[in-house]
Amino acid sequence: MKKDLLSIRDLTLGEIDSIFKLSALLKKNKKKFSKVLSGKTLALIFQKPSNRTRVSFEVGMYQLGGNSLYLSPAEINIGVRESVRDVAKTISRYVDGIVLRTFEHKNCLDMATAATVPVINGLSDFSHPCQGLADLFTIKEKLKDLKNVTLVYVGDGNNVCNSLLFAAAKTGMNITVASPKGYFPDEQVVKYAQEIAKETGSKIKITEDPVSAVKGANVIYADVWASMGQEEEIAKRKIIFKDFQINAKLLANAAPGVLVMHCLPAHRGEEITDEVMDSKNSIVFDQAENRMHVQKAILIKLLKG
């Protein structure tokens, strides 16, 4: 049976560990895996523009000996020009895997149901699994372990936040989310994470106070206050989120060596300052690089087996 990656919720701890181990090998020895996906083709179907997701998948596929095909919103326009299911059924006849970057998570579910090849969620309004896995791989790389590590996510309880909650709960890492009231992460995601946390020992906390949240933090994480599709809310959100900026004042409440992450693109001067983004605490660009290594591991797991 084919396997898809639509959400970290769908992965076991063993599968996550296996992805991390392979990612480390791929990062260390690129040439060893240069033909592992020879003859394979990956379709990148994007409703949203992208920098890291497109480049990391295209370059990663090339480094594994395979090919990639980028299909822009104008070329596919899924759900308008052609239904998601028809696109999935057709593209499956040509390629060995599909990456879908979309607005509605339902499109990922429909694509995976209809496709006969593996489907990878390159981002949806609900989940960003490749980002979440790359984030935890980066933390493990820097701190050696995820147990007893506390990640504090400061900002909008969005798709990245959902993925981090799933990942933290699965791996036993502690996570605190500090968001303004009304912008908390999905209630069902939090509930599920808390249930899994009972088994893994992860501590899950949701708060409106970013200052108290970062006390004892090993990692502080930022994301944009308004995601793509929420542009009309930018002015409103700048006011609501003004006390949730990752700046030197907030970092002063955390441990001196606290690591700072951002999934990018960053709106410098809004959710994070230049001073913090470019500081010795920042591992933002290590995190960005690791998107490619982790996604290469995912591609091998799904396309090669």
Word description of this protein:
About 45% of the residues lie in helices and about 15% in strands. The strands form 2 sheets. It has a 5-stranded parallel sheet. It starts with 12 loop residues before the first helix and ends with a helix. α7 (about 160-170) runs parallel beside α8 (about 185-200). The longest helix is centred in the last third of the chain and has 21 residues, at about 285-305. The protein folds into 2 domains: about 10-130 and about 290-305, 3-Layer(aba) Sandwich (Rossmann fold); about 130-285, Aspartate/ornithine carbamoyltransferase (Rossmann fold, 3-Layer(aba) Sandwich), CATH 3.40.50. It is an alpha/beta fold and about 300 residues long. The model has no long low-confidence stretch (mean pLDDT about 95). The protein has 13 helices and 9 strands.
Q: What is the number of strand segments?
A: 9
Average pLDDT over all residues: 96
Strand fraction equals 5-15%
The helical percent reads 40-55%
Q: How many domain modules?
A: 2
Gross geometry: globular
Series of H and E elements: HEHEHHEHEHEHEHEHEHHEHH
N-to-C terminal Cα separation, in Å? 11 Å
According to CATH, the fold-level topology of the largest domain is Rossmann fold
Mind telling me the C-alpha Rg? Answer: 19 Å
Annotated CATH homologous superfamily of the largest domain = Aspartate/ornithine carbamoyltransferase
CATH architecture label of the largest domain: 3-Layer(aba) Sandwich
Strand order of the largest sheet: 7-6-5-8-9
Structural class: alpha/beta
Please write the CATH class name of the largest domain.
Alpha Beta
Number of helices: 13
Low-pLDDT runs = none
